[in-house]
Amino acid sequence: MFFSNAAIDAFLEGASASDARAVEALLSEELESRARNKRKRLLNRARFPKIKSFEGYDFSQVSFPEGYGPEDLKSLRFLDSAEGFVFYGKTGRGKTHLATAIGVKAVSEGRSVRFHSTADLVMRLERAQGEGSLDRALRDATSADLVILDEFGYVPIDVAGARILFQVVSDCYERRSLIVTTNIEFSKWGTVLGDDKLAAAMIDRIVHHSRLIEFLGSSHRMDTALLFGEEGSRECDGVKGGDAEGK
Predict the structure, then answer these.
(1) Candidate from 72-86, 189-203, 210-224 with smallest mean pLDDT
(2) Beta bridge partners of 71
(3) Closest C-alpha among 33, 150, 147 to residue 87
(4) Are 116 and 150 in contact (CB under 8 A)?
(5) pLDDT tens-place string over residues 72-113
(6) For the segment 151-189, what is each residue's pLDDT rounded down to a tens digit?
(7) 146-152 and 113-117 strand pairing
(8) DSSP letters spanning 85-120
(9) How many H helices and E strands in the chain?
(10) What Cα–Cα distance (Å) separates residue 37 from each residue in 3, 44, 143, 151?
(11) Is residue 112 a contact partner of residue 144, using CB atoms and an 8 Å limit?
(12) H/E element, 193
């Protein structure tokens, strides 16, 4: 939206106070509408599997580097310096939830995000390579302030796929923030990628401007399953008790 100084001056010369307030309200609504539409577009392009937030997130079992904590993470200041993170821990510890919550907040602040399941991304890029459109697919995968590679190592990657994934990491290196969630320690990345040298080069690029955050404790999903299991058991016991009394 652009108005020349001459147009603004001409309006103000003949406008009443109520006219000015009406125009101000109109412009404010237009700007807010544009901001809402932008956030909606960014959210669609991010492709989060589910929307998550920081609300209620339990950081008690998350180990941060010394001098860095949850509030630093939530501030999103790392986006301005293209810093990243490796979220490491066993399955079900909340890595994907936290990565998604960061991405959702970034979108709410007008920042662009791409969320990828690592295995799905590799398959899409291999297909694009076969179709001769790899460069365009890589740009789409990495053209964002924040790129999230979720569940690295959950599915083995062949050497061809590993080389494409290395291109993704290289495209992000020192230009945009990258979050990698994984349950695989660095020493075993070569096994996942099928190439120790490629793994070493990838790790070098990832960790250079990244912090390692470890997720400890028990599996949130298992805890939830056990909780519902106990509640279900109590409910069943109640039903059985009622049946007995009825009989």
Answers:
(1) 210-224
(2) none
(3) 150
(4) yes
(5) 999 999 999 999 999 999 999 999 999 999 999 999 999 999
(6) 999 988 999 999 999 999 999 999 999 999 999 999 999
(7) parallel
(8) EEEEESTTSSHHHHHHHHHHHHHHTT--EEEEEHHH
(9) 10, 6
(10) 22, 11, 19, 30
(11) yes
(12) helix 189-193
Amino acid at 20: A
Phi, psi of 53 (to 5 degrees): -140, 175
Tokens 């994934």 correspond to: 165
- Residue 214's SS3 state is strand
Strands 84-89 and 177-182: parallel
Identify the residue whose tokens are 């053209």: 143
The two structure tokens encoding residue 15 = 């406008």
Tokens of residue 79, six digits: 């986006």
Instruction: Give the position of tokens 């998604």.
Output: 100
**pTM of the entire structure?**
0.80
Please, which residues bridge with residue 148 across strands?
115, 179
